[in-house]
Amino acid sequence: MDSHKKDNYNIIQPLLLSACIAVGMMVGYKMNDRADGSLIEAVAYDDEHIKLVGRVEELLRFVENKYVDSLNTDDLLNEAVTAIFSKLDPHSSYISPSELADITDQMNGSFNGIGIENFIVDDTINIYQVMENSPASRAGIKAFDKIVTIDDSIIAGKNIEYEKVRSMLRKEKGEKVTLGIMRDKNILATDVTIDVIPVSSVSSSLLPEIETAYIKIERFGSKTYTEFMDEVEKYFQPINVDKKGKAKHLILDLRDNPGGYLPEATNILCQLFAEKDKLLVFTEGRKNKKNEYKSNGKHFFQIDQIVVLIDENTASASEIIAGAIQDWDRGHVIGRRSYGKGLVQEQYDLNNGGAIRLTVARYYTPSGRSIQRDYSDRESYDEDYGARYTNGDLFHKDSTLVDDKKEYFTLVKKRKVTASGGITPDIFVGMDTIFRNENFMLLKSLIPEFTYRYATKNKSKIPNTLEGINNWKVSDDFYKSFSEYALKESEETSIPSGQLNKLDSEIKSNLMKIIIGKSKSESYLLGQDAAIQKASDVIKNKKELK
Fold this sequence. Notes:
Number of domains: 4
Radius of gyration: 25 Å
Largest sheet: 6 strands, antiparallel
Distance between the termini: 44 Å
Strand content: 15-25%
Oligomer: single chain
Number of helices: 18
CATH topology of the largest domain: 2-enoyl-CoA Hydratase, Chain A, domain 1
């Protein structure tokens, strides 16, 4: 994370940047049924296609051999590939070898490393969190430590790129890396042994007052179904077993989930429907015949009421789950209109170590809805979030951007549902209206790093309990320093200083994560979440779908 590149700040960026990258690169594809192989092996070419492939190779060969100046043919080829994919849909893409390695780590739920989260502050790696039972934790590394050297190479104050730091720490399991750690102005040499760092895609909490399990799914990776079932097993009563569970109901949080493997999503849906052969989703494409995914009737735990939380960054496989729950009237969908990605990709490996991800089909919810947004105008497609912000769709229930030309109805209660541009929730929960002010959107994006900087210098002034931080008064001096920092880090010329106290809750939640730790803060912070409050109200009062 390079926190210094804010010069071209745009109002769309604070909440969307990471999600756009994820949605563009890693969402909503199914695992190939065929054996792994190169693209050439996977596709059968007729004579005309063979001539076309030969023509491209011939053209590149002529340019390479005859052109007046020397050329980098790899750059030419990359430009050609980019040009080809620009004529396809927004989610077909070429993935370079280095990008593919990162995406594979994310989807497999693990990577080789030392187990830290960090900020780059004043050109120095500052450790923000140390994962439990990680190599860094075992080596005695702590939050607020600074990394100044890696294997005798000085990295502090060198304006070093974060990707360079990552590559220096990306070693094989069992290899050692020596870190120079600055702590309280002392330099400590610490040997850390690289290990596999598991990164779960699922987390959970118990809301005992309403007998409800809250389960958050970050993405649909190769282990998500297993991780989901591990969390479900903690709380729910097994079918036909006399063992009372801690929870009866489920809040499934799919906000900011960009999607992933389709089978992981459909396997989870099978646990949310008791009946067999209920249509969950179907896919169809020009070269792909209709393929239906149905429930298998093999659910293992008793789950009563279900609420699914979605937002504008809920995409693809996440939308499949929300669409099935909504279409079968299985539970409430709460939040804001989802991203609107109804395309299915397959991945084909290339000989250079990269891959292409190619759209091969569209998917449809059980009622027959395709929720894919129109991408005939690519500029409008890419700027959809900005349009939602400008038109107030993120703040108000009645969308000005959704234009439904065809009616769809749920399959049990025959409720009217929309298909245009994503899953429209049954109950709308808008973004906090203070963020209608563009300045506040900017300030929200700057809070995490500034609160870390502040905590580093003022640990003794901040309580070290959740309740203490919640009751702590954010001082005028804090806001003065924050305003100065915001003006320095952006192109803004003024900050609404008289209204900064509206950011109290954002600041305190970030301080809780820094001082107490993210995992220990999560349960407490759930109570401050408007969507979860609405979901709790639905479950507590057994509200019917209308």
